[in-house]
Automatic annotation (TrEMBL):
InterPro entries: Ala_racemase/Decarboxylase_C, De-COase2_C, De-COase2_N, De-COase2_pyr-phos_BS, Orn/DAP/Arg_de-COase, Orn_de-COase, PLP-binding_barrel. Catalyzes the first and rate-limiting step of polyamine biosynthesis that converts ornithine into putrescine, which is the precursor for the polyamines, spermidine and spermine. Polyamines are essential for cell proliferation and are implicated in cellular processes, ranging from DNA replication to apoptosis. It is an enzyme of class 4 (lyase). It catalyses: L-ornithine + H(+) = putrescine + CO2. Residues 69-416 form the Orn/DAP/Arg decarboxylase 2 C-terminal domain. The active site is at 388 (proton donor). GO terms for cellular component: cytoplasm. The keyword Cytoplasm applies. Residues 74-305 form the Orn/DAP/Arg decarboxylase 2 N-terminal domain. This is Ornithine decarboxylase.
């Protein structure tokens, strides 16, 4: 079914909404409004449709109707362009843990993006693609000694630390390391806080600098992570300012001038213009261009979230009343929507296929409220994953135009960050989810 048959000609803005891409990030909208972005939706839809039309849930083998992703590699390229438009001075090191999809990693590598790895396996995965170890930062401040030796053997030099014990391990197993001191940040407004676990408090910086000096280690810079899903970016400003203080303190210890500032991750497309503006201001104030300091970052979700669309099959339904039902689908919090628990995400369900028709372009097929923008949604649903755990709930309350039945399909846009990377096979639901790749940048 084409878009005109659905009867919905999308304005460029609703096309932006359709992927959940930013409506605030002005530079992204300007690009998004251009034809390739509209076309991206046609191609995402075509991929979803082709796959679903090939599945008949009444006769298929077990698992043929499993949930699957469509990954638009072209979106990764657009995000990369957008990154340099907003943050031209900042070299990204993609946080592999966010989504280690091999095609995404390859595209990022070919675009010149470097990598933030946090374990031996992540380092191995990136090295196996032929990426130079210089392009990797081992950004985990608390590493197993055996992993430090692995990094040493493979010439991965850049690494972070935030405590004295780590410095002693590094002295013993990888004394050539190029070290970045990770400082704690004020992440009180972030949804995913990290400074409760990592980062040196500013009062303890001097003791670490002294230890670096005593052990004759090679300190090259400072790193931080303001947490993810922050609602206010003053934490970013404060962290850059604190980093500057550490740069100054290092001079007092007669350490060689620091050369790298690592501004971490937590960037999100929908607030990227705002966070970038704050970051540019802070950099101009404390690390102006020409100051001899290289600025790097460790974005994860920014590069993965909007590139993936998840489609899941309605496998069961419990009708509670004519207008109320519990829907059970074949993906959930133990599978690709673990981000609900681990990453505080709230995936948006939309009707994809119902009553022999596709509804991809009807981005208002569902709503979090019964009445929204003059549309009434007659069906109240809760949506559940396939495991037997009561925790496996995707949404407790949602409203739908359509009265979905087993065999129908739901899709979730923007589900590339912290999804497949942490899915488990709990309860016998295997996690080798299919990914259909498209590239909406390279096609004519
Ligand atoms: C997880 C993590 C990131 C990526 O965070 P996002 O919110 O996905 O950008 C970057 N750096 C470190 C050290 C991390 O732990």
């Amino acid at each position: 079914m084409s878009r005109t048959e659905v009867g919905l000609k999308l304005s460029p803005l609703s096309a932006v909404e359709a992927t959940g891409a930013s409506i605030h990030s002005s530079s992204y909208i300007r690009r998004a409004a251009e034809p390739p972005y509209e076309q991206a939706h046609d191609e995402i839809f075509a991929a979803l449709k082709q796959r679903i039309e090939a599945i008949n849930h009444e006769v298929c083998d077990p698992g043929e109707e499993n949930s699957f992703f469509v990954c638009d590699i072209g979106e990764v390229q657009r995000l990369h362009n957008n990154w340099y438009k907003e943050l031209p001075r900042v070299q990204p090191f993609y946080a592999v843990k966010c989504n280690p999809d091999p095609k995404v990693l390859r595209m990022l590598a070919s675009l010149g993006v470097n990598f933030d790895c946090a374990s031996k396996s992540e380092i191995e995965r990136v090295l196996q693609m032929g990426v130079d170890p210089e392009r990797i930062i081992y950004a985990n401040p608390c590493k197993a000694s055996s992993f430090i030796r692995y990094a040493a053997r493979n010439n991965v030099l850049k690494s972070t630390f935030d405590n004295i014990e780590e410095l002693h391990k590094i002295k013993k197993f990888h004394p050539e390391s190029q070290l970045l001191l990770r400082i704690a940040t004020d992440d009180s407004t972030a949804q995913c806080r990290l400074s409760t676990k990592y980062g040196c408090e500013m009062e303890k910086v001097e003791s670490l600098l002294k230890c670096v000096k005593d052990l004759k280690l090679n300190l090259v810079g400072v790193s931080f992570h303001v947490g993810s899903g922050a609602s206010d970016f003053t934490s970013l400003y404060k962290a850059v300012r604190d980093s500057f203080v550490v740069f100054e303190k290092a001079k007092n210890f007669d350490l060689p001038a620091l050369k790298i500032l690592d501004v971490g991750g937590g960037f999100q497309l929908d607030s990227f213009a705002d966070s970038s503006a704050v970051l540019r201001g802070a950099l101009d104030e404390f690390f102006p261009s020409g100051c001899g300091v290289d600025i790097i970052a460790e974005p994860g979700r920014y590069f993965a979230a909007t590139a993936f669309t998840l489609a899941a099959n309605v496998i069961a339904k419990r009708k509670l009343s004519p207008n109320e039902a519990m829907l059970y689908i074949n993906d959930g919090v133990y599978g690709n929507m673990n981000c609900i628990l681990f990453d505080h995400q709230e995936p948006t369900p939309r009707t994809l296929f119902h009553d022999s028709e596709f509804h991809y372009y009807d981005i208002k097929s569902t709503s979090s409220q019964k009445i929204q923008q003059n549309t009434t949604y007659p069906q109240k649903v809760s949506i559940w994953g396939p495991t037997c755990d009561g925790l496996d709930c995707i949404t407790k309350e949602h409203y739908m135009k359509h009265d979905l039945v087993p065999g129908d399909w739901i899709y979730f846009p923007c589900l590339g960050a912290y999804t497949a990377s942490a899915a488990t096979p709990f309860n016998g639901f295997e996690q080798n989810v299919d990914v259909l790749y498209i590239n909406t940048m390279s096609s004519p």
